[in-house]
Amino acid sequence: MISTFTNGCLLGLGLLHTSIRHGHLIPVVLFPGWRRECVERYHLNERKHDSDGIGEMDSRESRILSSANRVYSWGGQKCNRDGFDKFYDSEEEAGESEGDSDNDFRVLDSYMQRERREVPRRIEVDEDELRHPLVREICRLIDLRAAWTPKLESELKRLLCSLKPSQVCAVLRAQSDERVALKFFYWADRQWRYRHNPIVYHALLKVLGKTKLCQGANRILRLMVRRKIEIWPEDFGCLMVSFSRAGHLRKAMQVLTLMQRAGVELDISLCNTAINVLVEGKRLEKALRFLQRMQVVGIEPNVITYNCLIKGYCKMNQVEGAIKLIEEMPLKGCSPDKVSYYTVMGFLCKEGRIDELRGLTEKMARESTLLPDQVTYNTLIHMLSKHGHAEEALGFLRKAEERGFHIDKVGHTAIVNCFCQEGRIDRAKDIVDEMLSKGCNPDVVTYTAVLHGFCQIGEVDKAKKLLQQMYKYGCKPNSVSYTAVLNGLCKTGNCSEAREMMNMSDGWWTPNAVTYSVIMHGFRREGKLSEACDIVREMIRKGYYPSPVEINLLIRSLCQVGRTGQAKRLMEECLRKGCAVNVVNFTTVIHGFCQKDELDAALSVLDDMYLNNKHPDEVTYTTVIDALGRKGRLNEATEMTKKMLHSGLLPTPVTYRSLIHHFCQLCRVDDLLKLMEKMLPRKNCKAAYNQVIEKLCWFGHIDEAYKLLGKVLRTASRVDANTCHVLMRSYLKHGNPLGSYRVACRMFNRNLVPDLKLCEEVSKKLILQQKLDEADRLMLRFVERGYVPSKDKQASFG
Predict the structure, then answer these.
(1) Main-chain phi, psi angles of 9, to 5 degrees
(2) Are 48 and 59 in contact (CB under 8 A)?
(3) Nearest to 243 by CA among 232, 257, 226, 262
């Protein structure tokens, strides 16, 4: 995605420029009013930065950094920037080896115990900051980035200058998509008379550490180096976790070496991060070796360290090892906490090992003096319910109540939902009645679970009756409750009744996007496509936009019944109303027209794709190419194939099969070979020439197939042998055993032994045609290789 905020804000707003540095694509948007000045600043930065610069600072900073001493303060210690840069150079050359080498532990060998002064480094962003009107307004403007105007951007710039550093951190945290937070950081950093406070960098790294955006976190860390911003050890931990989430375990562990070269010493929190990274990467043995090395150099593990290892044992299905580690922890001067036990309990709940679960609960109280409390029982109830063990969860609920603990409606609802998913609705209903008798009134979530359960087993009438009883018990159904009942009606073929119920919403609830989708798909499954289209239009009028998948399901149903024109109109209407119509939707309509042999209409839709900035993919092109081939318009099919290749798309196996079929049908072999010479370098198809020969045989063009035999005998594989057998059988079918004999001889010359039974049949046909010498030579070729012909053939030899 090459956009600053989105591709939409580039239209009429500015100029897109990209710079590639060390494999990272850095988007730069120059907005109105700043275009010329920012272009000059950016290109000046390009000239002033060193070879691995980020391209984010102005020319003044570049001059300062280029003349500055290469040794500076990092986290209160002297750090060598050259070592930092060389690490990245060596890292890029190292590749992604995922072996279990202990080279990454060398950083522990240089660890030196010394007295440290703990410096508080917490970034506090309280809820008040997240709810601050200024923060909320900026978040609103960011959400409108697809429709930005110069006025909106100017307003955002004005508000940006009024933000406190903690509020900038709040904006970053408030973004649901972390990529948007990263782009906002870069955009704000380029604004005139604004400079990020150091805590913003730390906050952004913390946000990116929860994602797979490891390259973004990498660039932020390097940017902090160039701007001489103090880097905390926790920042390296965020980078490690991000690399780990992206699947780059080796790079995550190399961050430890980066810290060593940067002059930042390890602490227990970073060691715990490293162990957790190894555990998440299923490298338990390596994590245990890391623990041993820690203890050798004097870094004492804490309860978090052991909890990470306990989780690792559970991930590897070695629960006995986890329990043994819990038993050994007190001997090592570190008592287990409830998290230690909860981790193992979660694994036992998942496996349904209830007896061991009870024993572990008693052991927790007996040996660790950690008495099971309400949180413990709630945890057990939820975990057991999540993994489908409703009866066992109910047993722990009873035990908790016997000990005087009060399990709230959330715990009861978890059990009710589990029973409903198992189809035991009566049992779930009993628990609801029990909740009422105990004064633990069920809420709308509890009733909705039962409603959904009734609908799953087809008891829609009971669900409707329960829906009315909810009012009696003072619980108002919401949109989710009604949608569950409507879904049940649609599944039983009562979509019209569901539509009437939705139209009769009396203010207690309002249909949402899911409600409309349920009814739309119900009408679609019943074949009432006009009603389904009406639901889509009503849905759009109410401001609920169907997804591309939902649109595609409906237009595909229309195309399947031959109403492709209506499918096209529906797609165009959705596109005009702002729905997210994608290339798959266009391809479905094109395929519908091609199935009806309305090729001109299909080509018209293809042109509409370009007009709407939707670029065809391989499936789109292949669909059109196949339709052109069926119509015999091979010249146009050739041009369409070249256009697909020119667009950078690779032909698929279906593309090859379609072209080979239609060209071979008309025996235009030379044109096919020229086209394949252009396709094969882009996407090699090893069996392409085999397919050509077999198709030519299928359509009776045997001599043309024989001319291509040399192209498949180059590798002499089993696939090639099968192709030769097809050609031999084709010659036999057309009464030309001599042609089959020539094919067999060419196979022998390539050390490829043909099928003996097939060659015996060829020999018999040759004898019938008085080709005795050829028949004898064919059988002798087998004898020379140690194959014994049948008795009849031996008699003919004699």
Answers:
(1) -80, 0
(2) yes
(3) 257
CB 654 within 8 Å of CB 622: yes
Yes or no: say if 252 and 286 are a contact pair by the CB < 8 Å rule: no
Is 573 exposed, middle or buried (CB count within 10 Å of its CB: 0-12, 13-18, 19+)?
A: middle
Q: How do strand 15-21 and strand 24-30 relate by DSSP bridges? A: antiparallel
Q: Using an 8 Å Cβ cutoff, are 782 and 775 in contact? A: no
Q: At what angle do helices 479-491 and 495-503 cross, to 10 degrees?
A: 160
Cα angle: 451, vertex 457, 461; to 5 degrees: 55
Q: pLDDT means per 10 residues in the chain (798 residues)?
A: 37 33 35 36 37 34 34 40 50 45 70 52 69 90 79 87 91 92 94 92 94 93 90 91 93 89 84 94 93 90 95 94 93 91 91 88 83 87 91 91 89 93 90 88 91 91 89 86 93 92 80 93 94 94 92 95 95 92 95 94 94 92 95 94 93 94 94 93 90 94 92 82 94 94 92 91 92 91 78 47
Q: 463-468 contacts: CB < 8 A, separation 24 or more?
A: 463/488
Other Cβ atoms closer than 10 A to 359: 13
CB of 321 closer than 8 Å to CB of 313: yes
Q: Which of 619, 590, 585, 612 minimizes the C-alpha distance to 603?
A: 590
Assess contact for 169 and 132: CB atoms under 8 A. Answer: no
Q: How far is the first Cα of the chain from the last one, in angstroms, to the nearest whole number?
A: 77
Residues facing residue 79 across a β-bridge:
72
Which 8-state DSSP code applies to residue 238? H
Cα three-residue angle 78-79-85, rounded to 5 degrees: 170
Distance (Å, rounded) from C-alpha 50 to C-alpha 266? 30
- How many Cβ atoms from other residues are within 10 Å of residue 387's Cβ? 17
Rounded to whole angstroms, the Cα distance separating 532 from 302 reads: 60
Distance CA 254, CA 183 (A): 27
Distance of CA 242 to the CA centre of its chain: 16
CA distances from 657 to 640, 660, 682, 688 (A): 15, 5, 16, 8
Amino acid present at 23: G
Give the integer Cα–Cα distance in Å for 296 and 332.
Answer: 14
3-state helix, strand, coil in the chain (%, to 5): 70, 5, 30
Could you write out the three-class secondary structure of 455-494? HHCCCHHHHHHHHHHHHHCCCCCCHHHHHHHHHHHHHCCC
Q: Please list, residue by residue across 481-515, b when 16 or more beta carbons sit within 10 angstroms of its beta carbon and e when fewer do.
A: bbbbbbbbbbbbebbbebbebbeeeeeebebbbeb
Which H or E run contains 19? strand 15-21
- Contact at 8 Å (CB) between 179 and 172? no
Q: How many CA atoms lie within 13 A of 355 on its CB side?
A: 0
For residues 467 and 477, the answer to whether their CB atoms sit within 8 Å is yes
CA-to-CA separations, 341 to 49, 303, 379, in angstroms, rounded: 53, 12, 11
